[in-house]
Fold these 3 entries.
Entry 1:
Amino acid sequence: MNSFKRALFCIGLLAAQAANAVTAVALTVDATRPGALINKNVYGQFAEHLGTGIYGGMWVGPESAIPSVKGWRKDVVDALKELHVPVVRWPGGCFAEEYNWRDGIGPRDKRPVMVNTNWGGVPDNNAVGTHEFFDLVELIGADAYVNGNIGTGSPRETAQWLEYMTADGDSPLVRLRAQNGHAKPFKLTYFGIGNENWGCGGNMTPAYFTNLYNHHASFVPTGKLAPQIIAGGGLDGDTVWTDYLSRNIRAPASAISVHYYTVPGRGGKDKGPATGFAEDQWMSGLKDALHMRELLDKNVAVLDRNDPSKRYTLAVDEWGTWYEPTPGSPARFLQQQNSLRDALVAALHFHTFHDHAERVSMANIAQMVNVLQAMILTDGKAMLLTPTYHAFRMHVPFQDATSLPVTLDRQPQYTLGGAAIPALSASAARGKDGKLYLSLVNTDPKEALAVSVLVNGAAATGATGSVLTALAMDAHNSFASPKAVMPALFAARAEHGKLSISVPAKSVVVVALGE
Ligand code: AHR
């Protein structure tokens, strides 16, 4: 569908829904009470050596017939630039805990092949290593977040990798880096020590991990090029690890990691497919996504108790949807389609992160390309942008914006059987460009919401932006129809001093408010 047809389609959809827009809500944005800065890093990404997430999906190598820049697919790099990706975490995940950085440097044809035991037992020829990763982040304008190896690596490996990446002056490792093509230090902003060490990272207890963390982090170089250190954290957002770490870290750390995935039905076969699901799976997916709010509340409460001076923030460095893999896809490649439901899951997470802006300094969706809740899917030389990509793009103005309080006169509920979740989620902020932005999510797949907007401290004269919605809950982009789900232009005008926004069923709306 071209953009004109899409706009007409959306107007038709909105008109159809306006007829049923029975639920009215009054929403107030308080522009006179600015809250915390929304760290742009909550719009971060995660790229692991897993399936075709890196090899094929992003990295094709300089000799490939697929156009590339420094070996990275040009179509993917161009699309990622549009998202203003602030930070990328690499090389894992579980993969990081068996990665030896020395295998990924030097001439590519001489690098050893390793077996990716976590993810399908497939060979990894180490074509993507430290230098290639820094090329990628430079190409897309992101900061680098490299995750070290505490599971099978030694403190010496940690210290030497950091020296290789960041040391200035003269040393054997600096000379090796220069010999490999990079005389100047790389700009490493974040370094992770640990990943899911309660599970794939070594089945450790919090006490054992914390000792190891202190051991490794003690050898992190200091000085102006030193990265901020992120400590691996707990299981599914439980607070035990956050509690233990925040009381027992003795070496440098700036953040504690938290992982939580949206898994409809919380696992097993109940998680269901990525598309072709019934309404109960729509409900359980969104309900599970909203659980992130409760889990962050609990982790923030633990930090507020143990760390009132705010030495540590939380880095939600893995989040996203996890469904049954695409039928026929290779085992453990975690390939799944991405539908309108995923776009709503993403936007609900953004609202949650905005509301926890004081403590949540980073979040990294899992993962960038072809794995779990991806921005981009590829198949050979074909590439498409998912509904999640569009949700990220619509929210770019919220990066480094100042959050603003939003109140509702009532919270309409979306109910199905015995389950109920809020039908409306809203988040507002003053962007870096000085404009007021409002993001709205209607979780109800059948009913539109009539939202009247009042702004304290400003007169909202209109709203312009975009809406992401579709006729089906599982609408998605396929290689045959790569633009089936796309944002459409959206506008609302104020009449008699009142701004009314009709939020379509199952939609995400992001608007700038005219003042
Ligand atoms: O994102 C996929 C995997 O999920 C990561 O490797 C691991 O940290 C988590 O369990």
Entry 2:
Amino acid sequence: MEKIIVHGGQPLRGTLRVQGSKNASLPILAACVLSDGVCVIENCPDLSDVRAAVRILEHLGCTVSRAGNQLTVDSRRVSCYTIPDTLMHEMRSSIVFLGSVLARTGKAALCAPGGCEIGLRPIDLHLSALRALGAVIAEEHGTLRCEAPKKLQGTVISLSFPSVGATENVLLAAATATGTTMLLNAAREPEIEDLVRFLNACGADITTTGEGTLVIRGVSRLHGCRHRVIPDRIAALSFMAAVGAAGGDVVLEDVRTKHILSVNRVFEQAGCLIEADEHTLRIRADGRLRAVQDIRTLPHPGFPTDAQAAVMAMLCTAKGTSVIVETIFENRFHHVHALCRMGAHIRIEGRVAIIDGVEKLHGAAVSAVDLRAGAALIIASLGAQGTSIITGLHHIDRGYEKIEACLQTLGAQIERSAESGRQQSKQNQPVRRLPLR
Ligand code: UD1
């Protein structure tokens, strides 16, 4: 079993270029199905979730090649409308293929998606929006069978919650529908903007009237395009939290500062110093941080739920009591147990986490149980005294491209090892310091 070994207590220093966005790449890859041409996608990170999306594209009949961080997708010969359960279960985002496959072939047959275990994650909003566009959807033995007998028809749809995935599915289904779709209370995440930019570059006609309204005028076909994926704001925030936890002085390149403003404020309240222009951000942290009392996860432009675990890991050693309210997912505190094993004092009351800052965390053997929880354990380990061993790396590899190599460039004492060790059978126990490489 692979593990990451971190010898904590080393401040981070240096410059790091942030990877392309996972959550923008995945719907863009699903959107390639709509194109009757060749799409070149730059800055597309090499992650296990992206590889899962590529396998779905290939199954549908696309030809996909990668050169560095550039993917080329030829979708001229898409014919298949089914996605096998094994591919659907590889990640939650597989559900966005529903809108694009249905729009391209007039049919789709697939099962419920996989992904992180962070609550129920239903798809009712996706399905009711697609039905409003004229899809006929039936469930047979766990498989969704969808058809658009008379081509999808534009209409007015209002989401009861600005779901990211449901917004993406509406964009994909409506881009080539007959007539105009107006989507109210749409998600406003930067990844949605990037999907709109991609679709418009392929010939779609999508505008926003602001405040979460999207107007999608259906066009008859989409062609290929060249598109550069936005930087990953959650990866950027994770590295910022690592600096907060371990101390140091780091410059992040290829950041969109406007995408992370709500979280920058939290870092500043905690005592980090941030200097940023449009595309570069410098963060400095020296000494013990201060607690932050009023963090509440919200849809964009609010504090992102995907940054909650990382920021909590950073605040475990802040002076005073921090409070984080998770409003987006009902079960997203899986990292708390492992952080407490490392010496954190955290209480959970429903959707509220109360973090009484301790002077120091200590190293432990801990296991990642979901993607962002895994990053949180690495962040906590970087600031902890002693050695930590982190397993469950397949979760972390879904969203972070070579996370240990990135942190090594900043001077962290971190390495990945495939060796099996006796510590693995003692999950969540303190461990002795291991020799460095
Ligand atoms: C996306 C992101 C994920 C992020 C989340 C919220 C990707 C690949 N994933 O996930 O990293 O944490 O946005 O910013 O982009 N809901 C329903 N019914 C639905 C759809 C959603 O009740 O049909 C609920 C969910 O259970 C959840 C909340 O709405 O509680 C947010 O979900 P949604 O915005 O759809 O998130 P995802 O698209 O799954």
Entry 3:
Amino acid sequence: MILVTGGAGFIGSNFVLDWLSQESEGVINLDKLTYAGNLSNLEAVRNDERHVFVHGDIGDQALVEKLLVEHKPRAIVHFAAESHVDRSIHGPAAFIETNVNGTFALLEAAKSYWTKLEAPERTEFRFLHVSTDEVYGSLGPSDPPFSETNAYEPNSPYSASKAASDHLVRAYHHTYGLPTLTTNCSNNYGPFHFPEKLIPLIIANARAGKPLPIYGDGQQIRDWLYVKDHCAAIRRVLDSGRLGETYNIGGWNEKANLDVVHTLCDILDQLAPRQQGGSYREQITYVADRPGHDRRYAIDARKIERELRWKPVETFETGIGKTVQWYLDNTQWVQNVQSGDYMKWMERNYDQRDSERKQA
Ligand code: NAD
Ligand code: DAU
């Protein structure tokens, strides 16, 4: 078995579904079910006995130790985190609690379990930490993409908390010999992406006839990767990655936010035209910028390609088409996650931006 943390979230649930469809091993899925965790993402494996869901916190070291002793997983794949940059600006404490203290507790539990293992289980055990390209900070227009040797320069409470967790993982390898692997990935998109993030938010708002909010001038650049390509990369690193190493994962798809939004509008115009006519582009609205907004991210993914023979399968064009179609086919999923808490977040984040913009 493997233990996955955060397997009811966006990337974690895609990973669990992919894993169970491709591997014979089972998954223990430990998730706190915060606003971002959603068991309906895992509906397809509800009757699969290889999937054991545990509702709990990675910060509960005793619980994690108990799970490790009981199920004896050969690896931990650690996704659980607070993941939204804007939320980290409004309330950083939860990010420190889960991303830093939670990862620390998880590492302690993993060390305690791994130390007591005997060969060959001890040699084969892996702790794979899923992290982000945001730890490297922001690139200028002509800077080369982030490589694994770039200095850490996190700029938001979210990226600072992820950077801290990366450093803890590194330290547990160097100090205690814990067999760790770290991946730093660029922006993901695809099914089950929570509609507080740019791509699913734009699709949901477009369909609901609401404004499509563009922060600042919309010329910030992100490097987009289809989520199933990320899952395949993680499986490859888990299988063949060198211990203590970090691997950057990206899609070689740098796009300005405004271009991404235009693409979404154009696809929606084709697949689900507005009843009143005209293009969804007419709903685009410029709002106040994100404080400390990183201008550009881009990943140099040559190391994982060279060493582990991984390359993305999807282009941005194929991946974004599949994504829009998934959201059109799963409107009930979107409606279900747009609960009371979601509405409060939308008011908090966007009403303030509107008034800041009007004052400017
Ligand atoms: P998400 O917010 O969609 O899901 C996070 C999951 O973690 C949720 O199911 C939530 O319930 C769970 N969780 C939160 N706190 C927990 C705790 N204390 N104990 C147990 N479970 C907890 O996040 P995501 O977008 O799927 O990201 C997953 C991981 O990948 C994160 O570590 C993130 O930093 C990293 N990452 C994300 C992206 C991206 O574009 N989304 C890119 C690179 C890296
Ligand atoms: O780079 C990897 C990171 O990508 C992950 O580590 C994070 O967990 C993930 O959330 C994502 O972070 P971003 O901040 O890049 O993603 P988000 O979808 O929130 O925003 C993408 C870009 O779109 C960013 O430049 C901000 C902008 N944006 C976002 C929202 C929600 C808008 O212009 N309007 C919006 O309403």
